[in-house]
Sequence to fold (354 residues):
Amino acid sequence: MVTRSHVRWLAPLVAGLRVSWLTLLLIAAINTGFAGILWIEDPRPFWHPLLSAQCFGFAIAYCVNVASPWEKSRPVARLIVAVAAGAVLGMLLIILLKGYTVADLQERASMFGLTLLTGFLNGVFVGLFFFIKFRETRAAAALHKAAAEHHLLSRQAVEAELKLMQAQIEPHFLFNTLASVQYLVETDPPQATRMLGHLLAYLRAALPQLRVPSTTVGKEIELAEAYLNILKMRMGERLAFAIEVPDSLHSHRIPPMLLMTLIENAIEHGLEPTAEGGSVRLTARRRDDTLVVAVTDSGRGLAAGGRVRPGHGVGLSNLRERLRALYGDRARFTLEDAAPHGACATIEIPFESA
Fold:
C-alpha cells in the first residue's frame, strides 16, 4: 500500500527524471568532451572512458536534479552531497555495465577508489560551474530591475565580481588537472597523490571565496601557491616560482582573485609560449597607506618577435574594471617590461587592515 510518506519520498525521485531533450543532449556532450580529455592518457579503447563518463555524468545530473539545491539554503553543501550520491551511483553503474567482479574490486581497490574520487571532483566542478552561471543570470536580472536605482559604479562592481566568480573555477584548468591525475594514477601513483593534495588545497582556498566580497592576503597566497604547485607538476623544470610576502601582511584585506589574475596572466602570456619556460615571483609590501602587490615573470615580455604581449585581455580588463569600481582613482594597475626580460604586473590599492 502506498502511503503519503511514500509519495513524499517518491515525488522528488520521479521529478529528477523530468528534463528536456536539450538538457540530455547537453549533459551527453559534456560527458563526451570529458571522456575525450581522459582518453588522451588512456591506452584502452575510447568506449571505456566514454562509458565511465556517461555513467558518472548522468547519475550525478540525476541526483543534483533530485536535490535541486539552486535556490535552497546552503546550496553549495547540498550540491556537494548530491554529487557524492551521484558519484557512488555512477560507480555502481560502471561496475555493473563493465562486468567487474568482487575479485576485480578487491584486486584493484585503490584504482576504483581514485576513479570514484575523480568522478566526484569532476561532478563538483561542473555543478559549481552551472551554479555560478545560475547565480550570474539571477543577479543580472536583479540588476536590470534595479538599474534606475543603482549608481553606475556600484553596478560595475557587482558585474565584475560575477565575472570573477565565473573565472574562479576554470573548467579547462580543472579538467586538465584531473586528466593528469588519471594518467599519474597508472604511471606514478605517488605523484598522483601529491597532485591530488595540491588540487584539494586549491579547492579549499577557492571555494570559500565564492560567497565573500573580500579575503586576506594570506588566503590569496594559499590559493596562488596551490595553483602554482599544480602547474609546477605539469610543467616540470619549465616553471619555478617564489612567493615573498611578509607575515605581517597576511591578515590584511584584499579583493579575492586579484593575485590569481596576475599569476594566470604571467603563466599564459609570459611562460607557456616559450619552450624554456621561466620563473614567477610574487611580492607584496606596504608603502605608507598603500598595499603594493607585484607579479614578475621571466617570460617573453611585452614585445616578442614584433608582437605585443596581450595586456588588455579579458582577465586584465576585468581586473581594471574591478579596481575602478572598488577604489576609483585610489587604485593603480601597471604592466611593464622587467629586466633583463619578462614583465612585471603591479597593483596598488588602499591599505586595509583585517
Observations:
- The first helix runs from residue 4 to 15.
- Residues 305-312 have pLDDT under 50 and may be disordered.
- DSSP finds twelve helices and nine strands in the chain.
